[in-house]
Amino acid sequence: MAQVPQTFFDALAVRTWCGLALTALGRAREEIDAINVYPVADGDTGTNLYLTVESAATAVEAVFAGYEAGSGAGSVPAGKPSLADAARAMAHGALIGARGNSGTILAQLLRGMAQVLTAEGETPHTDGDGLGLALRHAADSARQAVAHPVEGTVLSVASAAADAAEGAEGDCGTVARAAYRGACVALAATPGQLAVLEHAGVVDAGGRGLVAVLAALVETFTGEVPELSGAVSAAAAAAAAHGRVEAARVADRAGDGPDGEGRGEGESGEGGPAFEVIYLLEAEDTAVARLRQRLDALGDSLVVVGGDGLWNVHVHVDDAGAAVEAGVEAGRPYRIRITHFGADDAHTRGGERPPRERVQRAVVAVVPGEGLAGLYTEAGATTVLARPGEPPASGELVEAVRRAHAREVVLLPNDADLRHTAAAAAEQARTEGIRVALIPTRSAVQGIAALAVHEPDRRFDEDVVSMTSAAGATRYAEVTVAERQSWTMAGICQAGDVLGLIDGDVAVIGSDVTAAAETVLNRMLAAGGELVTLVLGDEAPEGVAEHLETRVREAYLAVDTVVYRGGRQGALVLIGVE
Fold first, then answer.
1. pLDDT tier for residue 200 given thresholds of 50, 70 and 90
2. How far apart are CA 391 and CA 503, in angstroms?
3. DSSP β-ladder status, 475-481 and 573-577
4. For 228, which of 26, 185, 432, 565 is 20 to 30 Å away at the CA?
5. Nearest CA to 50 among 203, 157, 209, 204?
6. Contact predicate 492/76, CB 8 Å
7. DSSP state for residue 300 in the 8-state scheme
8. How confident is the model at residue 436 (pLDDT cuts 50, 70, 90)?
């Protein structure tokens, strides 16, 4: 269906833009990953930008869903969300979901736009002039968020887009077109501004992502999908032809990149910091000012974005612990992500050490707690730990696939919300010559079922089919506690209510964990089953496992039960029925 153009910047325009930007980045993700050589040639800029916008779009959709479901009932207002509602949701979603250097900068760009779009005054900023002001403030605030701005990056592209937008006169469509054209010209010029890009024969990856986002803005207000300029598309095609690793090797050989953001990590496999550290931080402005100074002394590629007490901190350092400790001194850091830049990658190894022999096949699985991590590891899987509220980024999954060091890898995300992240990681691993099969497991109990039938000596396709069948035949459930009031399939729940979810949907709302777990289990076994798997979190009440085992033994004679300790896994109880 053709997109109906928006006339003014209202809530629907924000929603439309986020959706179109997500689609555009989805199409361009592999190309952007392929040209990613600065500040680190880790090939995940496109994926990180996609996941950042996905978080923004999800937050906007949640606002619309709240209004549509509320219709004036309870605490949810009737009608449609305002521009301020949607713009703030977009900015907040991008802030909490920002991934990587470019994703963090994009989050600040969206926040800067939202600050203008939501500003109160006599003249609402919803027309072409308002869009120009928003783009200007976005570019300026993003530049201020970077400790050492470098030209030839996404910052240059954002500034050029703002300059062009300010010089345009007309409606939002006219201003968006001008911004897009200005961004394309600036992007094509980036190889002449950064030596590492020129040596690799690529344009800046972050800037290319911003161009895709601005193309979506044009489509939002005109209904037209603008074409890339010839210079930009030619550079992108050349980079994609060489591939990410080759581009990184070319950059490594150059060895004469600029100082500043990243200290030229892309140019030298030995000169850059070893770790990327990202976390959300609750802190006061004065504490964040001191934090910037401390982190700037510890490393580089420092970007701190946010405000109003919530910040997203991104830095490259050799001492990851010190970067986290600095956050603890400033406030309360959480959703901490520490990524090693891959000591065994082709572009960091420098050819000095011969690679060890690959095994034929491995399983890589995301697990929600330390207990299950041990269980999966004992079964031979390479694990990625997903702590509560801290889902892994695609770069972490790619690193795990590399760590498995196999020609063939079966990837188990074990979470429905990780499907895009896992798919992106699988695609990245395939570009490195690894055969990857993604089994869309939605829970760790489905992953356990798949791992139980894994036979590495079988043909790869046969093994994948068998594991997929076992996972698909396993219904899954979890018992958890509601964090806030919300609308569910089972009615309205309040903060503190015990929720029983079956196959991802809330089926039970109660006050007692054991009772809710029993109700969920009875509903699942009503459809039949041969084996019940129970995974207990650290906060599960004493006796819940024994109670459920007794219930199964007395009411379902032919059904066996197995119990595992999951550790700190978020859910109080995970349940699987095969």
1. confident
2. 19
3. antiparallel
4. 432
5. 209
6. no
7. E
8. very high
